[in-house]
Amino acid sequence: MDNLYENLGQLREKEVRALLYDLVRTANVNAANAEGEEKRVAEGLLHLIQERMKAVVGLRLQAEALQTTVHIVFSLSDAGSLKVALSKTGKQKYCKVLSFNEMFAMGPIKNLDKSAGQQDRLDWLIEHDEDYRYGVSYNQDHQLEPMVRLIKGISESKNVVIWCANNAHDQTGLRFVLYLLRKRKQPVNIVNISELYNTITLEREEGISPIARGLLSQEHYGEIVSKYSDGFPLGAVCRQQYESEWLELANEAHLLRLWEYGKVKGCGEDQLDELIVKSVKELQEEQNDACFIDAGCVVTRVVESSQQIIGLSFIKYRIWSLVSSGALVFKGIPGALHQFL
Q: How far out from the chain centre does Cα 112 lie?
């Protein structure tokens, strides 16, 4: 029995659902066609499953009834940090946190509210993003289709707070969510941690504006959550502006988006290639004219120099594009940044 629990714990979410469906289907067949003890066991199993499902749904509905606020973030790590911070304020049971598992700064985003657009983006990511290709079966509840459905279905009776920072990923996601909520009559609130950083009272570096939640210490982020978790309401004109900006971005067909001068700017996917090559040359000089540079160091230098949140996998994809074109060369084992130079 211990091995059964252990094996069950190793299954992925999709595999657990498939197992449950198969179990119910088999029990249904046996309940309808079997005889004697086998029939009674199948009927008992179906009854037990139904009762357990009712109990689970009941507990979920009870929890959702207490949840007066829906918080929306744009990464799973941000969701985890927000849940921890909310729990420290005693508000977690009154809040629901929804999180995308996307990188909105890269890839196609046209018609993301529709199945066709979601499939186009999925196809592009599977082809160009190795990390996404291997992780697509994980965290399915946080992928586009279920997230779009959940956000559109948020009740007018719930408060909505969207968390973001000043980077193309968050700001593109912000515009997308506001477009999904365009028919909502009640206010939508925003918390921009980049703008609120300079209001906190804890010791901090003056003149610094963090471009992502991950660049904040837990203490600094916790103070922002404690003070501003209700967010600031967007006016009607501002909401309409964001909705229009989403449509403009989505229809531009760019595959890379950067945050420049307070706006999301659509770019060609090769926009950062020059910076990648420059970073390689700089690192060669710093390492006494080394012929080959660890690709992980190149990625880190590009992120630091660009001050953009675009996803490590996209930079990795562009490095390989430069290798393919002959602008760069490599040796070692391709596939993982720490395994080739």
A: 14
* C-beta neighbour count of 1 within 10 angstroms: 5
Same-domain check for residues 259 and 115: yes
pLDDT tens string 88-144: 999 888 999 999 999 999 999 999 999 999 999 999 998 888 776 665 666 677 889
Which residues is 296 bridged to in the sheet?
Answer: none
**Three-class SS of residue 71?**
strand
Task: Give CA–CA dist 63/291, Å, rounded.
Answer: 59
pTM: 0.82
Q: What is the dihedral of CA 48, 50, 56, 60, to 10 degrees?
A: -170
Q: What's the structural domain count of the chain?
A: 3
Q: Helices 144-152 and 168-180, interaxial angle, to 10°?
A: 50
Map residue 332 onto helix, strand or coil: strand
Which residues are registered as beta bridge partners of 163?
191
Among 230, 246, 264, the domain-final residue is 264
For residue 104, report the phi and psi dihedrals to the nearest 5 degrees. -70, -10
Give the CA diameter of the chain: 81
Please compute Rg for the chain using Cα positions: 24
242 with 289, same domain?
no
Q: Are strands 159-164 and 95-99 parallel, antiparallel or unpaired?
A: unpaired
Which tokens belong to 236? 């009607």
pLDDT the model gives residue 130: 74
Asked whether residue 37 falls in the same domain as residue 168, the answer is: no
DSSP conformation class of 234? P
Q: For residue 72, give the amino acid letter.
A: I
